[in-house]
TrEMBL record:
This is Nucleotide-binding universal stress UspA family protein. Residues 2-138 form the UspA domain. Pfam families: Usp. InterPro entries: UspA.
Amino acid sequence: MRTYLVVIDESPESEIALRFAARRAVKTGGSVEILALIPTPDFVQWGGVMATIEAEAHQRAEALVTGAAGTLLEESGLKPSITVLKGDGPKIIREMIRDNPEIAALVLGAAATGAPGALVSHFAGADAGALTVPLMIIPGSLDSEAIDRLS
């Protein structure tokens, strides 16, 4: 089954990317994998503080993907797979694509204004030729009607 891997965060462009991926999955009989990345925190001298910071980041990421999954199910009827991982985003994404042959495309949202975001910059630049699946960059300036029309 064709799976669209979507990386989400708290940005509006990730919601747009998720909507696009869901629409494509519905039209192609595919599925959606939602990935939330937890950045590795800077070193904090006290272990208890560090553990609290990591736990709070993980809870925020889980809440984010749970909300996104609920929206996706409500709007498209698709029940996505959910993954929450901590570490280097590009490395995690490459490993997920390598380990899951069902992933047919990496779907990322680009900010409507300013820089496109770290993952978009990375995969459209340094790793563009090394990806084994197409990269779909969804402009953050698209509204729902445009996404529905284009997907």
